[in-house]
Amino acid sequence: MILSHPSRNRPAAGPAGPAAPARRAFVVHGTRLLLGAGCAILVAHPATAAARLDFDELYAKVTVLGLTFSDKVKSLDGQIVTMRGFMAPPLKAEANFFVLTEIPMSICPFCSSDSDWPDNIVVIYLDRAQTFAQANAPIDATGRLEVGSWTDPATGFVSLLRLVGASFSKV
Amino acid sequence: MRILAAVLAATTCLIGVANAANVFPIDRATILAGSAFDFKVEFAGVVKAEDVSITINGEPAAKILGKDVAFIAKEEGVDASAVLLRAAKVIKPGLYTVEVKAGNDTKTVHWDVYGTPDTPKAKNIIFFLGDGMSVAHRTGARLLSKGMTEGKADGRLAMDDLDHMAFIGTSSTNAIATDSANTMSAHMTGHKTAVNALGVYADRTKDPLDDPRVENVTEALARTGRKSVGIVTTAEVEDATPAAVVAHTRLRDRKAEIVEMMFALKPEVVLGGGSAYFLPKSTPGSKRKDDQDFIKAFTEAGYSLATDAGALQAVGQANAGKILGLFHTGNMDSVLDRKFLKKGTVNKFPDQPGLVDMTKVALAQLAKNPDGFFLMVEGATIDKMSHPMDWDRALYDTIEFDQALRVAMDFAKEHPDTLVVATPDHTHGVSIIGTIDDDKPGEDMREKVGVYAAAGFPNYTDADGDGYPDKVDVSRRLAVFANNFPDYYETWQPKMNGPFDPAIKNEKGEYVANAAYKDAPGAVLRIGNIPRSTDTAVHAVDDGILQASGPGSEAFKGYLEESDVYRVLVEAFALAPAQK
Predict the structure, then answer these.
(1) pTM for this entry
(2) Which of A96, B56, B521, B544 is within CB 3.0–4.6 Å of A129 for a Cys-Cys bond?
(3) Do B158 and B210 fall within a single domain?
(4) Do B512 and A136 touch (CB under 8 A)?
(5) Chain B contacts of A104, Cβ < 8 Å?
(6) pLDDT tens for residues A48-66?
(7) By residue range, what is the domain housing residue B48?
(8) Do B71 and B23 share a structural domain?
(9) Domains: count for chain B
(10) Which of B329, B352, B385 is the best mutation test for A, with the most CBs of A within 10 A?
(11) What CA–CA distance (Å, rounded) separates B133 from B157?
(12) CATH assignment at residue B195
């Protein structure tokens, strides 16, 4: 999988397969790095260091008539970024995408008809299917940032911000 | 062995019943004469068209229903036949016996088609819906807002002075338990239905937009006259309660389609949250999956748009025609956050109007129609804050609901041809059991709960006379508990940093106590008593209490099914006078 030639219209998603339990493969700009779980990318490869992006930096303006992406988001479009948040309960236990939220989700919009996603979610497309992580603790997700509305053809899920070819680790 | 045999027999018997044909409207349906409804028969298996016989009071169905039924040899995704007639009508009031037959598959149901007096009693109806509002919410709002001395309330809520009341049975067609969709649907159509359904009976096909429809109040008013309709809520305007005023869908979460249905009926005033479903998907913040722009569609259809409290006042004073007010992308914040704590999403949407201001603008606009109006006002956040057991927010919102009701009752004083109704859609399992007194000795919060005589009285104050306690986190406050809950940390304190989030889902799909509250001083883990798949406290099956004043309100008494409430409304409006 070559991440330096991404398609804007198709988030990269690797072949489904079980994740290595203790060690996790990160693919950053074509370089395959094997890292111990929880080990920071920044230390291992400063030249391709992922920029940090926080939830409160996503939007410059939030109004009834729409949100406006921040300059930081716009400038990081297509770059590798790391975001810290919580993994929302996924569609199924093992999936190649999940929703990253600012605070832990007490509701499950996938399973309840009375709930809705927060405005400021980021959808994480993993480079491979992985199992769900404990929602009570934050995670760091790292991948290439995609900005703009996109509808997942498999699920119909519409997202505005995505990290594609991503991996995650517990903080 | 004998027990097993008995169980098997019972099971077989149940299957036998389930295999009979289903008829919609269901047995014992009450139907407004002349109202449009879809007639559907679902046979248990595939049958031949020539074997099907449907009579109503012994006559061919088409003669009574106004049109012939269509036979469906095999329904989509179902290995069985059906009969369907969209927009049927029964004009003449009376009892009807519907007999359906196809071979051995037979079913008989009875309908009560009712007319109304020829002359309206009321020109206007203001229907206040306190979502989830239970007895404890009323008592708590009175204690917080008015205070109490030596066991007597120091003041009365607006709803305390409504003249008539009834106990309302809130159950759904498929369970004793219920939700805000099917309950409000019963209020707004006169038909009970299944949990999550709005303006339809729940059929067996998968499509949530094809179920047999029944007429709602907005359609009934459009069919019979020129009254205006207003919808005011603190939730998303496409949330279940406001949706029930306009929508037809098996699933309340089809919010994008609900906005389309709202646009099709064009209520004169729509105020609340939920703009995300009005925005085309290309606009960041949209929750639509298509490119339809309903902000544009509504404004092009002549609506004045307001997106904050200031603009709402301006639009209200501008003598505008129709008004669309959307003040949040999602649900609006609770009044405790909006007016006092500035938590929740108030930093993003700092100028949201409250229910009182929205009610005032809606009434001023609707009252311009010489033919009268129907206004639905929902105190949505009472329920939204009761689910996570954030009782302080739920009670503050009950106060706001009551203050908005006061505006409506004042309007009715000036316009005595106005029927005012205040009711919940369903209740919550919540009670006030005493006080929590921080000044009692020790660290163990449980021992600071005052019960019986030790409860004393809370020490809330209202120095500014705005009807809300000046401070929510007083030292001796109400002890309010749910009778059902997921695992959660009881903190014994108002949630000063934002609405309570008691439980979150773990990797096994189970809701576990949210660790964010673990270290709050005095917090204790309470192990839940509802299934681990349930995220928050649930609705109660307990009756709701409806109260009302004005012309027609005397019909609210004793026990009524929620579907009977609609009959009182349409009788007050005389929507089915005798055919001359």
Answers:
(1) 0.89
(2) A96
(3) yes
(4) yes
(5) 501, 504, 514, 516
(6) 578 999 999 999 999 999 9
(7) 18-114
(8) yes
(9) 4
(10) B329
(11) 14
(12) 3.40.720.10
